[in-house]
Amino acid sequence: MDSELRSILETLLAKVDAMDGRLDTIDRRLDIIAAHVHQIDMRLDRMEKRQDQMDARLDAMGSRLDLMDSRFDRMDSRFDRMDYRFDLLQTEVREGFLSISDRFTTFDIRMRSLEERMSRMETASVARFDRIDSELKELRADMGATKAGFASLNGRVDGLADDMRQRFRGLNERMAAMEQRLAA
Fold first, then answer.
1. Is the pLDDT of residue 168 over 80?
2. What is the rounded CA–CA span in Å between residue 77 and residue 68?
3. For 13-42, what is each residue's pLDDT tens digit?
4. What does the alpha-carbon distance between residue 50 and residue 141 come to, in Å, rounded to a whole number?
5. Which residues does 40 contact at the CB level (< 8 Å), separation at least 6?
6. Torsion angle, alpha carbons of 120, 122, 123, 127, to 10
7. What is the spatial distance between Cα 89 and Cα 87, in angstroms, rounded to a whole number?
8. Are 47 and 142 in contact (CB under 8 A)?
9. Computed over its alpha carbons, how large is the radius of gyration of the chain?
10. C-alpha span between 73 and 76 (Å, rounded)
């Protein structure tokens, strides 16, 4: 009976050692996962910095546009003054007015050209913002999938822990029963 008990105990110890090895493997895997989480966190930090840089660039563009608006306002006021002068000169010199009229036509063409360029620039900016927005949406979706994967992994690890507890509980009960048999 004593050798049978030793055999059972040795078998149990071998199983405990095997479980300990499995736990070491799980621990290493968790370390690897933690390293990947750290890498993801670092990448998110870099992305936030890049987003801050883009925000700063957009703010700078807004400032430039504000400066351009003020320049256009000054130009508008200049043109208003010039219109008044030309109206006064019109009665005196018709030929001079024709020359000035040609200049205004040229300026109008330039202004239209400038407006077209501004419109193209605005369209390009909107396209860039749309692209950035779609990339951010993709990043959010990827992060959701990553979180779901971690939740699934946590569930599996919790299930494994419950299984291990149940097995050890049964093992302890069997060993207590064996000890009582041996003591009796």
1. no
2. 14
3. 888 888 888 888 888 998 898 899 899 889
4. 19
5. 146
6. 140
7. 5
8. no
9. 40
10. 5
